[in-house]
Known about the structure:
Strand content: 15-25%
CATH topology: Rossmann fold
Strand order of the largest sheet: 3-2-1-4-5
Number of strands: 5
CATH superfamily: Methylglyoxal synthase-like domain
Radius of gyration: 13 Å
Amino acid sequence: MDKHTIALIAHDGKKDEMIVFCEQYRSILERFALIATGTTGGLIRDRVGLEITPLLSGPVGGDVQIASRVVEGNVAAVIFFVDQLDKHPHDPDIQTLLRLCNVHNIPLATNPATARLIIHGDF
């Protein structure tokens, strides 16, 4: 890949927060290749206008697709706005993705404050 790839994911209760984040940091995010789980990616493309590659929706395998790319060395950072106040039927997939980011030393942001540090950082 020519550009570093950032994966963007947001639980349903955090999708609006992800849209606001992408609007605020559009000029920085457009420097990266962006991938996202399906619904999140579609919202970012439609509402923010960023070029993004949507994968499957999280509950049907999108988190696993991103985890696979992490393992393959094709993702430089993951921004995953996690809704800690809701249950997620695909929680094992989510935990796998989070664990693999740690195993492979991939920067992982689960909230906007950490996401800002990642996109302003040098990775």
